[in-house]
Amino acid sequence: AQKVTQAQTEISVVEKEDVTLDCVYETRDTTYYLFWYKQPPSGELVFLIRRNSFDEQNEISGRYSWNFQKSTSSFNFTITASQVVDSAVYFCALDLYSSASKIIFGSGTRLSIRP
Amino acid sequence: DTAVSQTPKYLVTQMGNDKSIKCEQNLGHDTMYWYKQDSKKFLKIMFSYNNKELIINETVPNRFSPKSPDKAHLNLHINSLELGDSAVYFCASSDRDRGSGNTIYFGEGSWLTVV
């Protein structure tokens, strides 16, 4: 069965702290894609990153970085020097390319950055 | 230009009514979706269409009927609305067939409240 687990329901940190959001996925497929989406208080869902199962290189984009580890089936997301604008719900998602267009989302992590 | 647009953004209606939410994408994608997000922020796929053809129907009640007149549009009609239908409905699209990974782009969401 396919599953995405975001064990951290809520995280609250003080501005400028670093914070890591965990994502653990389950699949037996060898070809799949992993995603992170951000949902700010305004409600829209914003695409952040896509990573395919054959590319384990970590990625950095400004203050954001992603650590993909197939050995532990994890795709963690780190925000460095957090800012109040980073406050949002963050979703990790899994797409099995063998399935018919069915992306499975984790339950989300609500991140609050306190000034 | 909004890539995925859905209307209305807010909808308050009485139980038993019939309502529709419209969705259009101008990204040239061939796959469109409806997702439902409940009060706990859990995102679940309802339907997926590929080139106007239904490919995913996730045991959604028959009161929900998607219609795709062309691959740029996917509307959602809901009959006999119930209190439990209150949620945020997200339309989305992706370009699966190009083999570049199935990144889903979401509309801004339609907040449905049934009273």
- Shape verdict of chain B: globular
Q: For the residues shown, what is the average pLDDT of chain B?
A: 90
Overall structural class of chain B, as computed from helix and strand content, comes to mainly beta
Kindly report the oligomeric state of this protein. heterodimer
> How do the helices and strands follow one another from N- to C-terminus of chain B?
EEEEEEEEEEE
Structural class of chain A: mainly beta
Q: How much is the radius of gyration of chain A in Å?
A: 14 Å
Overall shape of chain A: it is globular
First and last CA, distance of chain A: 41 Å
How many DSSP-defined strands of chain B?
11
What can be said about the biggest beta sheet of chain A? 6 strands, mixed
Terminal Cα separation of chain B, in Å?
Answer: 34 Å
- Measured by DSSP, the beta-strand proportion of chain B falls in over 45%
**Uncertain spans of chain A, ≥5 residues at pLDDT below 50?**
none
Tally the helices of chain B: what do you get?
A: 0
Largest sheet of chain B: 7 strands, mixed
Low-pLDDT runs of chain B: none
Number of helices of chain A: 0
What helical percentage do the residues of chain B reach? under 10%
Summed up, what is this model?
The complex is a heterodimer of chains A (115) and B (115). Chain A is mainly β and 115 residues long.
What does this structure look like?
The complex is a heterodimer of chains A (115) and B (115). The termini of chain A are far apart. By secondary structure, chain A is mainly β. In chain A, the strands form three sheets. In chain A, strands 2, 5, 6, 10, 11 and 12 form a six-stranded mixed β-sheet that branches. A four-stranded antiparallel β-sheet of chain A has the order 3-9-8-7, with no helix packed on it. In chain A, 0% of the residues lie in helices and 54% in strands. Chain A is globular, with a radius of gyration of 14 Å. Chain B is mostly beta strands. Helix content of chain B is 0%, strand content 55%. In chain B, the strands form two sheets. In chain B, strands 2, 4, 5, 6, 9, 10 and 11 form a seven-stranded mixed β-sheet that branches. In chain B, strands 1-3-8-7 form a four-stranded antiparallel β-sheet, with no helix packed on it. Chain B is globular. The model of chain B has no long low-confidence stretch (mean pLDDT 90).
